[in-house]
């Protein structure tokens, strides 16, 4: 039999489609949390929003995922994922946590859909979290062009490398906001989100132990329709969402309908400068990092000084049965470019761009999704307000945060978190007295491989105990049990 030339691509393409069904990973998970009226901070925070402050909550979760690593030897790589949960005591009974497609060409990726993205320069298990792109809120459906891994810009020597992303998406909590807020309170639907980040790495740990990393993270909420925005009818206002507005979101230009004669950047613009310096020994490593947050442009550069920020340190120890890693972080957000705000007038021509009001905005509520802070959860999320208000009532605080983890036995892991905060409210509505808070969690994870002759590969069972004590979050106590099974649904094939 003779094959026509036009038939060859068909068979090649058919074979490629079959390969996309191989190497599919699955995860099945059940979680139950019970305790006081509210869930303790560290039983809720930094879980990509699949969590709840309700003291009694839980979910059944299932996911399928094919990593682009399955095509590691190809120029074109394909990946996808679907992650869903049925929940109670949460913001919705059915949650589509992730649904995405990844297409890689060499190291460049196009990612379409809602996907959980890792924190940068932070230990996700032990850190309190990043201030701009944290892991505390539900992922937003978006289209992203990204370099997810460092790409060398110095050839094979790999002494300098870059990574980053650029994307647009749409928030999905508009209907939830409408149901959650109190009557006559404002809310917004179909708000758009622009995010971008760029990072530079200097150093090569394989050749020299010292390495520096740094970068800029930038986000802007814009577009959408704000309901009940004004005190007088008409209450609704559609924000700019033209092609020009998409470009304005990149550099923080334009203005909002509420700006009057004092024009500001359109939408809710914010970001962070992030830096990390590490030293790697034979079987140990130490790292220091800094995260400077800014709202709009007032503290983007050095006009007002960088008195706020998150300073942290992480130590990874040689293998031992007591402590594997430990983290300490200090966070200060009280300054916010100062307590005075004044726009230029004929009488007083000086402009003072203080009172930045971190995470809050007069149109977009703030840096939140389904009531959970996008960034660091020590900015008390609006869900804790209990009265249908989506503002961050406390964004001025200092915090000391500790985390440590280890594996005392081959089948047993643990981690502990403790955070102490002093809270001042915000400049608009300061607290009458400083409110203090102590939050603690200990979690044990049992990872059996075999019991007798039974193969338990991929199974794990974890139990966590958490408490809050103090006026900021209240006195909360809770216990959380998680049962998980992971594995490959189809044959693992990397080609």
Brief characterization of the structure:
The protein has helices at residues 8-19, 41-44, 174-180, 243-251, and strands at residues 24-35, 57-66, 76-88, 94-105, 108-114, 142-152, 160-170, 187-189, 192-202, 210-222, 225-227, 237-238, 268-280, 285-295, 309-316, 325-332, 341-342, 352-353, 360-361, 365-366, 368-369, 372-373, 397-409, 412-425, 430-446, 450-451, 454-455, 459-470, 476-488.
Would you give an account of this structure?
It is built from four helices and 29 strands. It has helices spanning 8-19, 41-44, 174-180, 243-251; strands at 24-35, 57-66, 76-88, 94-105, 108-114, 142-152, 160-170, 187-189, 192-202, 210-222, 225-227, 237-238, 268-280, 285-295, 309-316, 325-332, 341-342, 352-353, 360-361, 365-366, 368-369, 372-373, 397-409, 412-425, 430-446, 450-451, 454-455, 459-470, 476-488. It has an 18-stranded antiparallel β-barrel. Strands 8-11-12 form a three-stranded antiparallel sheet. The longest helix has 12 residues, at 8-19. It has a single domain (119-478), classed as Porin (Beta Barrel), CATH 2.40.160. With 495 residues, it is mainly beta.
